[in-house]
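Recap from last week: sequence in, structure out.
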Amino acid sequence: MQNSSDRHEYPAHWEADVVLRDGGTARIRPITADDADRLVSFYEQVSDESKYYRFFAPYPRLSAKDVHRFTHHDFVDRVGLAATVGGEFIATVRYDRIDADGLPASGPAHEAEVAFLVQDAHQGRGVASALLEHIGAVARERDIRRFAAEVLPANNKMIKVFTDAGYTQKRSFEDGVVRLEFDLEPTDRSLAVQRAREQRAEARSVRRLLVPGAVAVIGVGRAPGGVGRSVLDHIRDAGFTGDLYAVNSAFPEEQKDIDGVPAHRSVQEIEGSVDLAVVAVPAAYVPDVVAECGEHGVQGLVVVSAGYAESGPEGRERQRELVRHARTYGMRIIGPNAFGVINTAEDVRLNASLAPEMPRPGRIGLFAQSGAIGIALLSRLHRRGGGVTGVTGVSTFVSSGNRADVSGNDVLQYWYDDPDTDVVLMYLESIGNPRKFTRLARRTAAAKPLVVVQGARHGGAAPQGHAVRATRLPHATVSALLRQAGVIRVDTITELVDAGLLLARQPLPAGPRVAILGNSESLGLLTYDACLSEDLRPSAPLDLTTGASPEDFRRALSEALADEGCDAVVVTAIPTVGEGYPGDAALAEALRSAAEEVPGKPVLVVHVELGGLAEALSAAASTAPQAGSAAPGAAGGAHPPPLSASLERGDPHRPAERLPTAVAGTVPPAAGVTPEVPTPNSPSRLIPAYPAAERAVRALAEAVKYGQWRREVAEPGKVPGYEDIDEKGAAELISGLLARGQGLTLGTDETCELLGTYGIPVRRALPALSADDAVAAARTIGYPVALKATAPHLRHRADLGGVRLDLADEEQLRRAYAELTGLFGNPHEVRPVVQGMASRGVDTVVRAVIDPAAGAVLSFGLAGPASQLLGDTAHRLIPVTDRDASSLIRSIRTAPLLFGWRGSAPVDTGALEELLLRVSRLVDDHPEVIAVSLEPVVVAQHGLSVLGASVRLAPPPVRDDLGPRTLPVY
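Predicted C-alpha cells:
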C-alpha cells in the first residue's frame, strides 16, 4: 500500500488514529494506487443522494478513469485521504491545487479545491470534520494556504462542516452552487472548535467503556478462581444492570451458563450486541480475541492480561500490535495489564475489575496507572470513606495498567463534565503528553478539584510499559507548572486521600485565616504550629478544657464560623473519661449542627484515637444504618477491618480478600440501598476527621491554595502589547540567522540586536585582551566601569573574585586588570570584558526555554549560589500574562529581598515584570527562539539593567497541540 508516488515518497507521517464524535475510532491515511478495490467497494455503499451531492449529477458508478484519478496522487498538488474502519473506507477527502482561474496548478499556487464523500452509515459521526482537520494540516505542509469548496445548497451537512470549522472564510452563491473559501491558518476559534470536538469525542469514548449496556468477560474458567472467573463474579455480585456474558473457547457445547451467567464459546455466538469486553486470556491468544470482538462490533476492551511492554522489548512490540489491531476495528483499550474499571452509578453498578467488592457510591473519580496503588486507594477510601469519616465514595474508577491507549488525559475529558463526579484524584507514574495534560488540567480544575500524586519522580525513567515524551525539565519544574494549571500536587497517596475527602465534603475556604478550638491545649498548639508551617494564618487556639460538653463545642464552633475574620475552622478533640460524658454521637451532632448554620466555611476535625467520634461524624449526615444497627453482615457495628496484606500488596492477577459486605454507616450498594451522599453545597455536609493535626492542616492548606487559584482564574490576566516591539524585524533577523545552520547560539552583537527588537536593552560589554584594550573600552563606555572574567568556569562567579566593580579611572582599571590576570591566568584564558556600571540593586536571573514535552517555560530567580543550592526558582508557562508575571516574582522564597527586606530599599518590580512579559512575548511570537538567558539582571530602585544575555535559535519544534486531532502512537 505504501508505494512511492509519481513525485513524492509515501508520507507515512500523515497516518493517524482519531476518535470520532460517538467515541469510536477510525484510521486516517493517504490513498494509494493499491486502494482501487477498496474505493470501488466504498463507492458502491454510498447512496445515490450522497453521490449526487458529491458530483452534482447522477453518478451511479466510478469509471476506470475515475478510479485511477482518485487513487493516484503525487502527495503534493493532488492528495487524497481516507478514513478507514476494519481496513475498509468509510469516507474520503481530496484536494487539487488550483490557480487563480480555478485550473489545475502546481506550486507556487497557494489554493486548492477540496471535496468530501462520507458513507451514509457513518454520516453524523464527525468523520468529515476530522478529515478536514487532517487534510488542512497536509495542505499547510505543502504550502497551500486556502481551500475552496463548491457545495449544492441542499447539502446542509457538508456546508455545516465547513462553516463550523472556525476558519476565516468567504461565502458566495453562483450558478446554483455555494462556493466557500477559507484560510487554513489556525485561528483562536478554529482551535477552540477543535478542542471542544476533541473533548466530546474522547469523553464519549471513555463513557462507552464505563457505561456499557452489555459486557462479555473472555477467559472465564469453568472452576472458581482465576482472573477471568473473578472478574465475572465481581460484575455479577455488584449487581450490574446490563447484560453479562461469560466466554471461553474451552466451554463444552452443552454448557449454557456459569453460575447463572450465559456462557458462550465465542463472542460471535452472542446474539445481542456487546459494548465492553474484559479480556483475561494469555497474551498469545489476545489477537484472536480482538479480531472476534471487532467483527462482532464490540466498542471497547479492558485487557487485564499481562505479558506486554512491562515484560521487555518483545512484549512492547506485542503491545503496539494490540493497539493497532484494536483501533483497526474502532475499539479503544484500557490496559493491557490493567486492574479494571468501576462505575458505582445506581443505573450501571459495574465492577469490571479485580477488586472483590464494589466501592461505596460517591462523588470522587479515581484514576491510577498502577494496579497496586489502585488497590491501596480503594482500600483507604473504604476505611476512611465509610467507617471513619463518613460515606464519601467513588463515582468511577479506572486503573489503566500500561495505558497503551486510554490514558489519564482521556479520563480527564470524561470527568470534566461528568455530573456524578465532584473531585478527581489521580495517581500518575508518567505523563505521556504534558502539554495536553496541563491544558486539560487547567480546564478541569476551573470546574472541580483535581488532586495528583506522581510516582517514579526520582527514578529517571518511565515505568515499564509506559511510552512518554522526553523532557529536560526537573520534576520540581513540572510540579510548579502543574500547580500553575490549578492541579493540587501532593506527595503521597495518604495526602491524596486526605485532600480528596476534604474537597469532596466541604466548601473551599475564602482565605488562609484559620480558627482552632478544642478540648486539648496541646493538640491545639500542634495544630497552630502546623498552620504556620503551611503559610496559613491561625488565630490563637481556643481551649475549651477537657470538661467541655457537646454544647460547649457547638457554641464555640458557631461563634468561630460567624467571625468574619475566620475562613476555616479546625476542631481538635481528645477522649474524655467520666460518667457524665454523653458520647461521641452527641459531640458529632453538635459539630454538624453548628457547621450547618454557616455552610460557606470548611470545618475539619483532628481526633486522637476517637473511632467512635469519626463514625458519629459520618453517621450524623447519613441516612444509612448507624453503628451497632443490624446491617446485613455487619459485626455489631465494629470498625471495618483493613484490606488484607495481599490486597494492599496488590498483585493484579491474584484474587484478593473480599471487603466486608457492610460496615458501620453503610449498606452494600448491590443490596439495593444507596447511601445518601451530600455534596459540598448540600445542607447536610460531612465533616472530615483526621488522626493527626499535620494531615488535617496540610489538606486545608491545599484547599486554601486551590481556592485562591480558582478566584484568580476567574479573572484572568492579559498579555500586554508594547508599541515598541518590532515583531516583523525580529522575524527577518531570525530567518537570516537560521539560514546559516540548523541551530546556533548567537554572538553578543546578534543577541543584543534581537533582544533590542523586543525592547530589551543589554548593557554593552567590550572585550579586553590587554590592559590597553581595557582602557580603550572604558573610554568608549565612560567611567566608572566593571572588569569581568567571562571564561566559562568564571562566568557569573563573583564569589571567586572574577569581577572588579566601580573602577573610576585608568589607574584603578589597570591595577584591577593586573590582579585579575595574575590570579586566573593569561587574558586568552580569562577572557576579560569591560562594562559600564549599573545602578546597584538585586541580581536576578530570567530564563526561557522550549521543552519538547511541556512547551515554552519562563523561569525566574535571584542570582547567586544561595538560590542555586536551594533550587529557589519559579516557573510559568508561556505566554505569560501580567498576573502571571506578578505572581512569578513573588513566588520564590527569596522574594522579600525585592520588597525591602530588613530595611533595604524596595526595587522596581514593575520594570522586572515588564521584562518578563517582553521575554515571554519574544519566545511566544518566535518559536525558533528555543532558549533565552538573561544573567544577571540587576533590578535597582528605579529601572533595571541586563548585564549578560544569550540566545539560542533552531527551527521551530513541531507543535502537535496545534495540529489535527490524533491519538498517541506507542
